[in-house]
Design goal:
The structure holds 2 protein chains of 2 kinds. By secondary structure, chain A is mainly alpha-helical. Chain A has a two-stranded antiparallel sheet with strand order 1-4. In chain A, helix 2 packs parallel to helix 4, helix 2 packs across helix 9 and helix 10 packs across helix 11. The termini of chain A are far apart. In chain B, 71% of the residues lie in helices and 1% in strands. Chain B has a two-stranded antiparallel ribbon with strand order 1-2. The chains are: A mainly alpha, B mainly alpha. At the A-B interface, helix 4, helix 10 and helix 13 of A face helix 2, helix 7, helix 8, helix 14 and helix 16 of B.
């Protein structure tokens, strides 16, 4: 039974960053801008978040911060820097009519170089790894709530505050997209921007909002990914931005479906990392590489089945031209 | 008059906008160096370091030989990305196809050197191309027949390819001592063809010739054959191509496979080198495929342009090796090259600037709208 809970608890660590980043991608793509830069933005956000943690934890004396408040500030910094970074993508693809895939790729390439270069510059021993004092962020058990049978161990034991932030973001994203004027206008800009324009909505402004929100969530998602799964940031977020893109497509650009598909992918990732402790799977004696392949193979299979009747935003990837019919 | 029309031709325009992107990227790199120089108190190093980046590869025959050495794999992955791009496909999976090519070349070189004798290297090279092509086949088919975006599938194929190749290397050609693949014996390495005598002391390889041949072949396919025309037509406007009777599905699959073959060849030429680089068993996706994207974009997806761009990025790479002399880490090179990619994405901005200057006399600024080619 403890293995069962261990798998589910670990699933959150992998699923929540995918959820947050994919929701970010949703806002961008629903406004009509393809955001393949999620990976790079995640890394950029994670970098500034980790640098904040690194600097504020460096002096372990009385002035040093620690605990959940420090983590929340770091998450906001990660999100903020991601949002600023995503403006580059927004400028290229909205104002300059650039090919959105190229601009996104440029952001991906740039952030890898940037993060390694500046990590070497900022860390005390000039290495590209940024150590994180992650021990103080882990929550053994939430008082009271963890005593609830089944739900307690599932949600409130061996966890991080990031899990709850992810769930809150999901609720907000759902509400914003479906229940607010802003969300409906955003969707209009991604489906039929000329109609939105004729109705007096500034397509340019809405798309800037869409990309910036995606930058904020992706940047935050970068740190949310690093905190529970790693002790350092080593110049990469391990392709999570790309996986989030797959989650977004599998989730058909809809918040709740994105949540389910993030759980699915999180589960796959978890199996790849904990198969050793499951007696049945360990007994099969398959090489570890095969388990690591599974999430990616599953992605391809799932997309092959679901993509034929895909509901991608109609104007996605097409620069806005108000005169076009 | 003829000269002026050349200056206004489409190719020249692309060339200028690439040049402007390069300049913008270099200036951006210089600014970063200045900031770092100020914060480190090594401001005096900035200009010499910057000069090193640009000049190392051009100041001697040895330096230029090294530029050629680094340019060859970049040229192949660049061609791979550029070729798919002409059909409107974005092959981010060149790295995965590269890995499959590398493994095939190593496997044939290690295990069949005695069987094939002096023909080993050419068989290994060709089969590496086949392996790369096969690895790109599935994303091509899924894009063509199941409408699965090739960007996502090729990324997934990168990871699957990585773990598959690590597994296969451990199973078949593993050198436990170094946690690496076995080195390829001399029969499996590409001969020098005498090129090393032209650039004494450098790492230059015979693969330079193979790269030149590949550039010519791809140039001919794209510009002089029906196949190339069909592929480009699909890239420009898939619906129009379909209407004109071009088999759209077939074009997508074919384009991906040819792209994969080129990436697979890149994987082979890196390891079939007389310098005997080591294939380490580490879980990182090689950067060649991503560098290829930068090369193809700067080269504006033409075969010749890609070759020139690969020389330029190799020049930066050789310059970066000289960075140890100064207090800057060599990742500054990657910052410069990725910012060049971003600036080439802003090509419309640059094209408008160029048009403005060319047409200044007539005060007739032509706005270039849309188009990634």
């Amino acid at each position: 039974m403890s293995i069962f809970y261990l798998i589910l608890q670990n699933m959150w660590f992998f699923a929540i960053p995918l959820l947050v980043v994919a929701l970010g991608g949703m806002f961008s793509e629903r406004s009509g801008i393809v955001n393949i830069a999620l990976e790079g933005i995640m890394l950029f956000g994670a970098f500034w978040g980790c640098m904040f943690l690194y600097w504020t934890s460096a002096g372990t004396g009385s002035g040093a911060m620690s605990g959940q408040l420090q983590l929340i500030i770091a998450l906001l910094i990660a999100g903020g820097s991601g949002a600023v970074y995503s403006l580059l993508h927004a400028y290229a693809s909205i104002d300059m009519n650039a090919d959105q895939t190229i601009s996104g790729t440029a952001l991906n390439l740039f952030s890898t170089a940037f993060v390694i270069f500046f990590a070497r510059l900022f860390t005390s021993n000039h290495v590209q790894q940024i150590k994180i004092p992650s021990t103080s962020f882990h929550i053994e058990a939430v008082p009271l709530l963890s005593k609830i049978p089944f739900i307690g161990p599932l949600l409130f034991e061996n966890t991080y505050i990031t899990t709850y932030i992810g769930i809150i973001i999901l609720v907000i994203a759902w509400f914003v997209l479906y229940k607010t004027r802003f969300g409906l206008r955003l969707v209009a800009c991604g489906e039929f921007p000329q109609a939105a324009d004729a109705a007096g909505i500034s397509v340019r402004k809405m798309r800037y909002f869409g990309v910036t929100i995606s930058g904020f969530l992706a940047g935050m998602g970068g740190l949310i990914f690093i905190i529970p799964t790693s002790v350092e940031l080593n110049g990469t977020v391990a392709g999570y931005g790309f996986l989030a893109l797959a989650v977004l497509i599998f989730g058909q650009w809809k918040p709740l479906r994105i949540f389910y598909s993030a759980l699915f992918f999180g589960f796959m990732k978890t199996m790849a990392s904990v198969y050793m402790v499951i007696p049945f799977l360990a007994g099969l004696g398959m090489p570890s590489q095969f388990y690591k392949m599974i999430p990616y193979i599953a992605t391809i299979i799932v997309l092959a089945i679901s993509s034929k009747n895909s509901h991608a935003p109609a104007a996605e990837g097409i620069p806005f031209d108000s005169g076009k019919r | 008059m003829k000269k002026q029309s050349f200056l206004k031709s489409k190719g020249a325009l692309s060339f200028y906008s690439s040049l402007l992107a390069i300049c913008a990227g270099l200036i951006f790199g210089l600014i970063i160096l200045f900031f770092v120089g100020i914060s480190q108190g090594s401001i005096g190093d900035v200009l010499p370091a910057f000069w090193t980046i640009i000049s190392t590869g051009l100041s001697s025959l040895k330096g230029f030989g090294n530029v050629l050495y680094f340019a060859v794999p970049l040229c192949f992955t660049g061609l791979a990305v550029a070729f798919a791009f002409k059909t409107g496909l974005f092959n981010i999976g060149a790295s995965g196809q590269f890995l499959l090519g590398s493994f095939t070349a190593i496997y044939i070189g290690v295990h069949y050197a005695e069987t094939f004798g002096s023909a080993t290297w050419i068989i290994a090279l060709l089969l590496a191309g086949v392996a790369g092509g096969l690895w790109a086949l599935l994303p091509g088919i899924l894009q063509a027949y199941r409408n699965v975006n090739v960007v996502v599938t090729t990324i997934m194929m990168n990871y699957i390819g990585l773990y598959l190749v690590l597994f296969l290397i451990k199973k078949t050609t593993y050198l436990q001592l170094k946690n690496a693949a076995l080195p390829i014996p001399v029969e499996g390495r590409i001969p020098y063809f005498g090129i090393n005598n032209l650039f004494p002391g450098s790492k230059v390889q015979g693969a330079v010739l193979i790269a030149i041949i590949a550039v010519i072949i791809i140039h001919i396919i794209l510009n002089k054959t029906n196949l190339g025309f069909e592929l480009k037509a699909c890239g420009h406007n898939a619906d129009a191509a379909k209407y004109a009777g071009i088999n759209h599905h077939r074009s997508i699959v074919l384009s991906m496979v040819i792209s994969g073959i080129l990436a697979g060849l890149a994987g082979a030429v890196v390891y079939q080198s007389q310098t005997m680089p080591i294939f380490s068993v580490v879980e990182t996706i090689p950067s060649y495929g991503f560098d290829g994207i930068a090369v193809a974009l700067l080269g504006q997806s033409s075969a010749i342009g890609t070759a020139l761009a690969s020389l330029f990025f190799a020049l930066l790479k050789v310059g970066g090796e000289g960075m140890q002399l100064y207090s800057f880490s060599k990742e500054i090179i990657d910052i410069i090259s990725s910012s060049i990619v971003y600036f080439s994405a802003l090509s419309i901005l640059f094209r408008n600037v160029i048009n403005y200057f060319i047409n200044k006399k007539t005060k007739d600024t032509v706005k270039v709208v849309g188009g990634k080619n």
